[in-house]
Amino acid sequence: MSLGTFLIMRHELLLIAAALLVLIAEIFWNPDKKRSISLFSIILFGIITIAGFLPSPAGSLFGGMYVSTGTTLLMKNILNIGVLLVFIQSVTWLKKEENSEKISEYFLLLISTLAGMDFMISAGHFLMFYIGIELATIPIAALAAYDRYKNKSAEAGIKLILSSALSSGILLYGLSMIYGTTGTLYFSEVATHFGNTNLQILGFIFFFAGMAFKISIVPFHLWTADVYEGSPVNITSYLSVISKGAALFILIIILFTVFPIIIATWQKTIFVTSVLTMTIGNLFAIRQQNLKRFLAFSSISQAGYILLGFIGGNQLGMASVIYYVLVYIFSNLGAFGVVIAISNATGKENMDDYNGLYHTNPKLSLIMTLALFSLAGIPPVAGFFGKFFLFTAAAQKGFYLLVLIAVLNTIISLFYYLLIVKAMFINKSEMPIEKFRSDFPTRFALGICVAGIVATGFASIIFEVIKNLSFGV
Amino acid sequence: MDILSLFVVIPVLTITAILLLKDTRQVRLVSAFGMGLQLLMAASLVFLYLTARHAGNTDEMLFIKDYLWFKSLNIHYAVGVDGISVAMISLTSLVVFAGIFASWEVEYLRKEFFVSLILLATGVFGFFISIDLFTMFLFYELAVIPMYLLIGIWGTGPKEYSAMKLTLMLMGGSALLLVGLLGIYFNSSPNANQLTFNILEISKVVIPLPAQRLFFPLTFVGFGVLGALFPFHTWSPDGHASAPTAVSMLHAGVLMKLGGYGAFRVAIFLMPEAAHELSWIFIILTSISVVYGAFGAIAQKDLKYINAYSSVSHCGLVLFAVLMMNQTAMNGAIIQMISHGLMTALFFALIGMLYGRTHTRMINEMGGLMKVIPFLSVCYVIAGLASLGLPGLSGFVAEMTIFVGAFQHPELFYRIVTILAVSSIVITAVYILRVVAILLLGPTTNEHFEHLPDAKWFEKISVVTLIGSVAAIGLAPYWLSTMIGTSLHPVIEKIIALNPF
Q1: A379–B73 CB contact, under 8 Å
Q2: Domain containing A435: what range?
Q3: What's this model's pTM, rounded to 2 decimal places?
């Protein structure tokens, strides 16, 4: 294996190098200037994001355990954009007194978990896949418990690590059954040896259950609300967007490349879980008052919609999933960006606190409205296009009933998104949140999100590029 | 820049101009200027269209412009108009123009109000110029969301409830419509050519009948929700009553016509076989709309609710006529859309002006206003006479055409429903004349209202434009009816093949 082939792993190598540089910086940096580690990390990560877009050869390493294709590169680039936005949004929060001692740990852990997700996406062997998942999960659990002085944060961390451990165990059990019946763990070889025996289907179900945990599909979603509520807001936004997106990416790759033989089985599974997820996510979101929990349930139902892209097993399906994750990154990080800005300035996270926000902070209200409309799928923002393509992909293979259920669910979700719009624009308040001006990083990140929300729909080239890199069963 | 896309570009530019203004007093002038420009554009479009037709152009749609948008799904931004679209665009520009003047005195968050109003208009104009189903759907949904803000922020009464109910029900219609559109798309090329969203191309193929039977009801009901099809009309009374004046004008006058137009242009034009088979179900529902809406109006005491139920009845008549599927009835349907659009906009404008003076909409609290505010009262009487179909005003032309067309079917079923629908004329007369009597005639009943100011200049502009148009169509409907008639040919040819009536 020469240096040239080793550099196929460019993404992950850069991430590991960045992690090491942040660690070294932590040791040698002047203690008074600790806050500029944020800037240093963001610049490093910006370089990584840009380097990701440079053309890279496809290939495989370690005997086929690590595979890099155009599709996986696209997925990693999309995740990079999201993580860059999360980084920029975290700067203000990290400047606070209680966080100022552990700035570099924050970036280090986030980079590690992203590296894990990248390994997971590029897996060509179930063992590499599992290593990636574990590398992604453990730092996130530490990050969920980041707020040392809040009980809820510690609770979130414990819940996340324990339920992750359980689901990873189930996942491994499924993998062991797959290994037992096919004699191999390489993706391509499992695909050819897989059949329809009961034990294999059972293995698949356990595997799917383990993945469903990471995507927060009903009925494996019970950890989501509490963990999202307890974690610091930035980690919540990371979990809801990047972690979910990465798991969706690898799941669609595995379903399309490893398990096409049992497509009839997993179509049924996805039909049922999709309907359950959309409906339960929407119904529970209606009652939420805390914005973090609210966005948690909203993101559960979004995962339900994304499953519509899976069900057809077609190229359009994969394209719509990847496209929707990109749109979802901009929309959800936009919504979270507003929540973060308000939380940093005032510490308030409840929907009632947002009453009358338009009169004091009109721009923030408008950004939140745009982000919510994108999540709801209202034109002319990108979320409309994303949802439309997902529904088209499902309709292409004749799943009209599922599309009907999905569009009826968008009405329910529109209801609760409008509740926030109502609070900001229509409800009157004695003491609305005071006018404040966020600092540059927050505004910059929100600006990128708004640009993404508005432009991604109309610029058809984005969708065309994604579709060319997708494949079907 | 093609002439049709200007109808979308001008409102967007107006919105941008409004957003950049610092002084709220100029907002109204900029809006009036922008929408006045739009009105002039619409007039010149009518002129250009008629000239082109006169010169012998017999294409189905004129001024077509087509830009490829999403290559892999064959989605285009495609625009084009025929006589019917031209008529609807003229209606919209008239009503929007009148609506701007009817909202002249909005004070609270004035900038945001006019931006939302013009955004609503953008969606409607975009819908009428599109001939690609994706673009149509995009503009259709775009038109729904500003309604929530307009009713929820500037409305009266239970405005949050009405706004939410309206938005969710209309989105429900869009939801069904989306499934229908996807069904049409995936069945748009039985010969394994490329799938398409373009209406003209789809109309040339016959969509397989089983698919039609599934997707026609979905599409028709999807548009019907907006067009006040019973039993999906329940958003309408509360929505119209709680909305501010200009919004009610736009909504009842124009948005409900989106439903009728869509039902005609998409559901029936593209799936005539299923329409023919299943029309009886929807004819029953629309007849119920027509009669029930009229009866509902009799029972109301609030002016806006009366008008809202009246709109349900008249818009139901549009769908009723469209389902009759012959030349005369469909011609009548389009004229009814325009006539009712103008008329109801006029009504809501007048009600808004009355409310601004008396601060009540309950008819038993007002009385004998003819002596106090003669200009507005006379206009109200004219509007009422148009609504009940007095010859000389546009309501008569539309309703007569519809009923003659409907009666052309010899089967008993059609004759019965036509008779039922005709009975709505009488019921309409009851509630219109009753309101006129209680509200306007006789001695003044409330001494607080004895010294109300009559119409101001901007109110007069608003009202006179609309009355002028209603009278013009009533007295000289020929030019409108021929413009529509020639454009109906492609649809009628498709339908004649199935059923000679």
Answers
A1: no
A2: 262-473
A3: 0.93
Give the orientation angle of helix B457-475 with respect to helix B83-102, to 10 degrees. Answer: 160
Domain count, chain A: 1
How does DSSP assign B209-249, residue by residue? HHHHHHHHHHHHHHHHHHTT-TTS-THHHHHHHHS-HHHHH
In sequence order, the 6+-apart residues with CB closer than 8 A to the CB of B344 are B249, B252, B253, B307, B310, B311, B314
Question: Is the Cβ pair A400, B183 closer than 8 Å?
Answer: yes
A88 within a domain of the structure (yes/no)? no
* Mean pLDDT in order along chain A per 10 residues (473 residues): 80 92 86 79 92 86 89 94 94 84 89 94 93 94 90 93 94 94 91 88 93 91 91 92 94 93 91 95 91 91 94 93 96 94 87 89 92 92 94 93 94 93 88 83 92 91 92 87
Is the residue at A59 inside a domain? Answer: no
pLDDT tens-digit profile of B297-320?
999 989 999 999 999 999 999 999
> Helix H segments across A194-314?
198-215, 224-230, 233-238, 244-257, 263-286, 291-311
What residues of chain B lie within 8 A of the CB of A392, using their CB? 73, 182, 185
User: Is A1 within a domain?
Assistant: no
Report the C-alpha gap between B111 and B18 in whole angstroms: 7
Please determine, for the modelled complex, whether the ipTM score is greater than 0.85: yes
Q: What does the radius of gyration of chain A's CA atoms come to, in whole angstroms?
A: 21
Interface residue B141 vs chain A (CB under 8 A): yes
- DSSP states of B43-109: HHHHHHHHHHHHTT---SSEEEEEEEEETTTTEEEEEEE-HHHHHHHHHHHHHHHHHHHHTTT--TT
Q: Does some domain include residue A347?
A: yes
